[in-house]
Every structure is written in structure tokens, then in C-alpha cells.
């Protein structure tokens, strides 16, 4: 999650990132991480025309999701470049290195295409993980944030097109860009998958600004990608969770859960662990060397019972009624989520890993 930061928040994020780099420095952790994920990781093949270092760039690399993505990429043997949007600093800083990869920070603004293109130059891929939140907003995400997010997404894809090195871009959208529509007006498919899109008018009428911002930013990214010939994939995750997720990612959590009662009632309130989402991002990126692309829905748990809904409410410090509502007896949800496209891709990756062992 990116936001309009204070100097103190910037300092804290950089310090957390440095701690993460140090924590990643030991190769002995790799086996433990593989066991936690439930499958084996593999370092990607090094293309002959790249040399030994494979460089990728992660926007908002010191955020909750960005840190996880950087971690996954390091384990897979990539050299990672992160963007630092701090005009008080200049040049590049090498934050750390290990036997898996190297991390460096590059100053660039998401709102200046020229600086983005310079930062992306030499990278084989870009992971756009940044989102925007207004700490002064009641929900953490105001209407104006959507416009900012759209512009950033456009600039990132445009900057990718201006480099000769970037071959793929993976953009983090949201499941909210897929699920919101007025189902009372017409018949909709009961399955929500990667082909589903939320309705802009419905989001605007219901003041679902976070959903609208993600929806419009993703559509803008696809428009620029088609115009400029950029190979793009978008991942639409459920509510991102993980250790202390609310304390580390409060603004996007609160913004995501606006409309939680309706999502829960419709069977569309889903979560995803941040490390599993990061692994999915890496798998999609590597799959793009072949046939992978398009949109992917990503979640690992659908909140279906009041018990799990109450547990989620407790974790984020809100009343259970704000998620469960007044629902009494169990009523079958009218919709069903499907992440089959992503599951199939990751299953192929898993089989490839085992075949190489």
C-alpha cells in the first residue's frame, strides 16, 4: 500500500525494508519457506542475453505487499530494484545483497514518466504493487485517490513501453474490480472469475471509492498496454492478510471492507495471505515468458460462516455486525468465486518444479 507519506512514515518503511533484507540474507531459510508454502520453489533459468543478474523492479517495494513480493523474488534468484518516491534523496542506494539476489533503491516518482522509464531501464519486468490511501479520509481511501491511482497505473505502463529491456509488467488490482454490480437489474453469471468486471456506475453510486479506483486503474493500464504493445498481467486479490496485517496495512484493509456485509451475504468476501499472493505474482511473471497473461483472481479463503467473519472482524478491530449484518439462518450465497485460471498456472509451475528435482 502506497500513500501520501510523511517523512517519519518514509523512514519507518525504509528501516523495515532494511530489516527484511537482513532477514533474507541466509540461504538456510529457503527450505523453511518452501515447507511453509507447501511446495518447492525454483530459481528461474538465466537467459543467455541477460548475464547472471536478472533485474526486476517493484513499485512501493517497502509496503506490506511490496516487501512480500521482494522477498519472493529474492528467493527465486532475482536482483530487485525498488522505487523510493522521496525527492529529498538522489541516485541509488544498495540496501543489501545475498546469494539469491541484490536489492537496490532508486528514486523515481510514479507521476513522472521520465523518471519511471529511467528507473525501469535495464529491468526485465516490473511489478506495480502501489496503491494510494488518504490517511485523513474516514475509510482511508477517498474519491480523489482513485484519480491518483489511475494516473500512476497509466504512467507505469507507459514507462515500461519506453524501455527496451522491460518485457512484462504485473499489476496488482483487486478482487473488488470484479465483484460489484447491481444484480437486481439483470441476470448475471453466478460464477465470478477473471472475466468479471465491476460496474463503474454501481461503485460510484454506492461510494465504493476503493473498488472504483482499482477498477479504473486496471482498465487504464489495459488501455495503455494495448496501445503501446506492453505485455501485461493483472492480479485481482481478495483482502490481503498475514501476520499483523491490519497493523501493517490498515488503510487498505478498512477501505476494502466497505460493503463487507454485502460481500459476505453474496459469498464474495475472500482473503489471501500476503506471502501466497507474492508467490502468485512471481509465478504469473515467470509464466508470461510463455503463454500466461490477462487477468487472475487470487484468494485462498472465502469467508462463508459467521464464525470466520467474526474472527476477521476481531482482527481488524470492528464489530462483527459490520461484516455479518443481521443474517440469521444460513442462506446459500448467490455467487461463487473462481480462481481456476491462477490455480491451473500455479499447478503447472509446481509440476515443473518437481520434474526438475
TrEMBL record:
Keywords per UniProt: NADP, Oxidoreductase
All residue ranges annotated as the 3-beta hydroxysteroid dehydrogenase/isomerase domain in the record: 58-221
Superkingdom, taxonomy of origin: Eukaryota
Gene3D superfamilies: NAD(P)-binding Rossmann-like Domain
A molecular function GO annotation: oxidoreductase activity, acting on the CH-OH group of donors, NAD or NADP as acceptor
Family matches, as InterPro entries: 3Beta_OHSteriod_DH/Estase, NAD(P)-bd_dom_sf, NAD(P)_dehydrat-like
Family matches, as SUPFAM superfamilies: NAD(P)-binding Rossmann-fold domains
Gene Ontology biological-process entries: steroid biosynthetic process
Pfam families: 3Beta_HSD (PF01073)
Family to which this protein belongs: Belongs to the 3-beta-HSD family.
Name of the molecule in the record: 3-beta hydroxysteroid dehydrogenase/isomerase domain-containing protein
Amino acid at each position: 500500500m502506497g500513500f501520501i507519506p510523511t517523512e517519519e512514515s518514509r523512514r519507518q518503511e525504509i528501516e523495515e525494508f532494511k530489516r527484511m533484507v537482513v532477514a533474507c540474507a541466509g540461504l538456510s531459510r529457503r527450505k523453511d519457506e518452501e515447507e511453509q508454502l507447501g511446495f518447492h520453489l525454483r530459481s528461474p533459468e538465466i537467459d543467455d542475453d541477460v548475464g547472471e543478474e536478472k533485474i526486476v523492479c517493484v513499485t512501493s517495494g517497502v509496503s506490506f505487499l511490496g516487501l512480500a513480493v521482494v522477498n519472493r523474488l529474492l528467493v527465486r534468484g532475482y536482483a530487485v530494484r525498488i522505487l523510493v518516491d522521496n525527492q529529498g534523496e538522489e541516485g541509488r542506494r544498495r540496501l543489501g545483497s545475498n546469494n539469491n539476489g541484490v536489492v537496490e533503491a532508486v528514486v523515481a516518482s510514479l507521476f513522472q514518466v521520465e523518471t519511471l522509464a529511467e528507473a525501469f531501464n535495464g529491468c526485465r519486468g516490473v511489478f506495480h504493487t502501489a496503491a494510494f490511501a488518504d490517511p485523513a479520509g474516514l475509510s482511508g481511501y477517498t474519491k480523489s485517490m482513485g484519480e491518483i491511482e489511475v494516473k500512476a497505473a497509466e504512467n507505469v505502463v507507459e514507462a515500461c513501453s519506453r524501455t527496451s529491456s522491460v518485457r512484462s509488467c504485473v499489476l496488482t488490482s483487486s478482487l473488488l474490480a470484479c465483484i460489484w454490480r447491481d444484480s437486481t437489474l439483470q441476470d448475471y453469471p453466478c460464477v465470478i472469475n477473471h472475466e468479471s468486471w465491476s460496474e463503474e456506475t454501481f461503485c460510484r453510486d454506492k461510494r465504493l471509492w476503493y473498488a472504483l479506483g482499482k477498477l479504473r486503474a486496471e482498465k487504464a493500464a489495459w488501455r495503455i498496454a494495448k496501445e503501446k504493445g506492453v505485455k501485461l498481467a493483472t492480479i485481482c486479490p481478495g483482502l490481503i492478510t498475514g501476520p499483523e496485517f491490519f497493523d501493517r496495512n490498515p488503510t487498505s484493509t478498512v477501505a476494502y471492507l466497505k460493503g463487507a456485509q454485502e460481500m459476505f451475504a453474496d459469498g464474495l468476501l475472500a482473503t489471501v495471505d500476503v506471502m501466497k499472493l507474492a508467490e502468485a505474482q512471481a509465478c504469473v511473471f515467470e509464466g508470461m515468458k510463455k503463454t500466461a497473461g490477462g487477468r487472475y483472481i487470487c484468494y485462498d479463503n472465502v469467508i462463508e460462516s459467521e464464525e470466520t467473519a467474526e474472527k476477521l472482524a476481531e482482527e481488524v478491530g470492528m464489530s462483527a455486525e459490520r461484516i455479518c449484518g443481521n443474517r440469521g439462518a444460513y442462506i446459500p450465497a448467490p455467487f461463487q468465486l473462481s480462481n481456476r485460471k491462477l490455480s491451473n498456472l500455479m499447478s503447472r509451475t509446481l509440476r515443473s518444479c518437481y520434474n526438475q528435482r
